[in-house]
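Appendix B. One record, verbatim.
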Amino acid sequence: MVFFTCNICGESVKKPAVEKHYQTRCRGKTKNVSCMDCLKDFYEEEYVAHTKCISEAQKYSNQNFVPKEPKNKNAQKQESWMDIIRAILDSSEYQLTPQLRNAFQRLQSVDNVPRKKAKFENFVGNCMRMPRQQATEVWNILEKELNKMKQAKQDELAAAKAAKQKPAETETVEEEPPQKKSKLTNGDEAAAAAEESTEFDWVAQLKKLVAKQPDGIFLEKLKKKLSKKYTKHLAVTELSEKQTKKFEKRFD
């Protein structure tokens, strides 16, 4: 929790109580506070963005102090919640009325905003004296922005997954020298004839296989399916050693 000192009357004030302080004791005065930890001064609404400050360990340690990573999951969730509120204030999508904008600005100064609708409405109603109708409007906007962020994250992960599994269609494969018929078996002769008459379309076959799997396909599974098609194209029951090497090379 961030604490401030009122530079007008000298009173110590918790961050959520700053607004109330300037509506009561220092009413009519321009907000002018300083952080009790870092001693930085804030004027008017600048204090709202000051959500975290240096710890006592950092304050009284030497210059080589390295802060530990926070382990409090609730604090991380709360920070994410604050990110949503800031995103709403910065966006022109919601066309906030002055009353709604003021409500979101006040929310920025609170460190423990509930993340469930019922608790949220009770909290802002009791602690911030926000009318129930306005509380519901604020929650609906928060929920819309949260869902938008979740969808963007899902789309990002799906795109990364698809890019990782997509075969390199434009990769150039080095052609092997013509086979010598004197060293071929009967099965190899039939396969060679099939290759010479109609070249196996690697890219087209890969596209067909991938298109049948809209959710993606594991590389090993794709390889097996393509191998079957290649074997069938060569009119053999099993690939020879040389054919297998060629398939491996082209697939890679």
